[in-house]
Design goal:
By secondary structure, the protein is α+β, with helices and mostly antiparallel strands. It has helices at about 15-20, 40-45, 50, 65-75, 120-145, 150-165, 170-190, 205-220, 245-260, 325-335, 360-370; strands spanning about 5, 10, 25, 35, 80-90, 95-105, 110-115, 205, 225-230, 240, 265-275, 280, 290, 295-300, 340-345, 350-355. The chain has 3 domains: about 5-115, Beta-Lactamase (2-Layer Sandwich); about 120-195, Helix Hairpins (Orthogonal Bundle), CATH 1.10.287; about 205-370, Heat Shock Protein 90 (2-Layer Sandwich). The chain starts with a strand and ends with a helix.
Length: about 375
């Protein structure tokens, strides 16, 4: 692509397009892809070299509104737009986007597509929702710990006293009372983990060692029959986090995935990558951190019911028959404590959890490396 002189030297327009956050494609008269920028490569999950000269309908269903925009732009030779479009296909997943189509100057029949993902606002809204869910569980756990456990202890003690002089039939009832109060106390104990509001003591963590540790646990236990695929970026810098808590997060996610996949042909794909992320304020500080480290857990299970998805990280929401609905709420709290973001995209045969995490400060990494020498 040609450049122009602009005082400070030649401008490389291809580099300019590559730096845009919007996906930009050029399709020819037969809707073959002729150009795609870096954001487009991420959206379509393939390199520009692979996408070039491939038909757009390999990635976007031929009945999608995008093709109507392309036809309008060709026929009217005007820029046309559509907002709030769902872009959904097995090849690229599900995205909520704005699309603009316009005629490429000097190239009849060639259309420039600009696709703006609306995920930035969605990420913020979801993250605030997850933080709200974590706070609601924290408040609930504190209330239960103080207002429920003490009366339960009294009930259990009374049942034990009654049992001493009860008939065999009544003793069965008193034992039932004790069993049920113990069960409720155990549930409260599980909730009390949410009441810990102390700042976490973070350090550089090799995320691949965490994931490998979790994979070994899964492979030798609950996920023994599952096929694991690891797509790791070995150049990733360390995560700024707490190793044990990150193990808890990914153990929970992979356990859920292992329970969701079919008994035969079950597959879990674990991937890591480096991407430009959004910024969030670390809880308890005024520091903003970028979240370029992406970890994804993908399974080929039936998917999460549509009515459950908006509430997935809220407490007591579960698709399991005997699930407590606390696992993903705890995951949301831990990721929140790390200043990170977690998202879920689910459809039949493809459920994907994305976790975005901060990079450890360079000075801490250097200090740790020096300590190992």
């Amino acid at each position: 692509m040609n450049g122009i002189e602009n005082g400070g030297g030649e401008i490389d327009f291809e580099a300019v397009l590559g730096s845009l956050s919007a996906s930009v494609l050029v399709v020819g008269p037969a809707n073959l892809i002729e150009f795609v920028n870096g954001a487009g490569e991420q959206l379509f999950g393939a390199s520009a070299a692979y996408l070039k000269d491939r038909s757009l309908d390999e990635f976007v269903p031929s009945d999608h509104p995008m093709y109507g925009l392309i036809d309008q732009a060709r026929n009217a030779r005007l820029a046309v737009s559509e907002y709030g479009v769902t872009l959904d296909s097995p090849r690229i997943g599900k995205h909520f986007v704005n699309i603009q189509a316009s005629q490429l100057s000097g190239r009849p029949g060639h259309i420039v597509l600009s696709i703006h993902q609306r995920s930035f606002a969605d990420k913020i809204a979801k993250q605030l929702s997850h933080r709200g869910a974590a706070r609601s569980v924290t408040a609930l756990a504190a209330m239960l710990a103080h207002e429920v456990k003490n009366p339960l202890s009294g009930i259990r003690g009374a049942a034990q006293l009654v049992e001493q002089n009860a008939t065999p039939e009544d003793q069965e009832l008193t034992r039932l009372i004790c069993t049920e109060t113990d069960r409720i106390c155990a549930l409260v104990d599980r909730l009390e983990v949410f009441t810990d509001q102390r700042p976490i003591d973070r350090e550089p963590v090799n995320i691949h060692r965490v994931l490998e540790h979790v994979r070994k646990i899964a492979k030798n236990g609950f996920g023994a029959t599952v096929r694991y695929v690891e797509n790791y970026d070995p150049s990733l810098p360390p995560v700024y986090g707490v190793r044990d808590q990150l193990i808890q997060v990914f153990l929970n996610l992979i356990k859920n995935a292992a329970e969701a996949v079919p008994k035969k042909g079950g597959e879990i794909i674990i991937s890591t990558s480096y991407q430009h992320g959004v910024s969030f304020v670390v809880p308890g500080t005024k520091t903003k951190v970028h979240l370029p480290l992406m970890v994804t857990i993908q399974d080929n299970g039936e998917g999460i019911p549509e009515d459950v998805r908006p509430h997935l990280f809220e407490p007591f929401v579960s698709t399991k028959t005997n699930g407590s609905g606390l696992g993903l709420a705890l995951v949301a709290k831990i990721i929140n404590d790390h200043g990170g973001v977690i998202e879920c995209d689910s459809q039949p045969n493809r459920t994907l959890f994305k976790i975005m995490l901060p990079v450890a400060p360079a000075e801490l990494v250097a200090s740790e490396n020096n300590a190992e020498l």
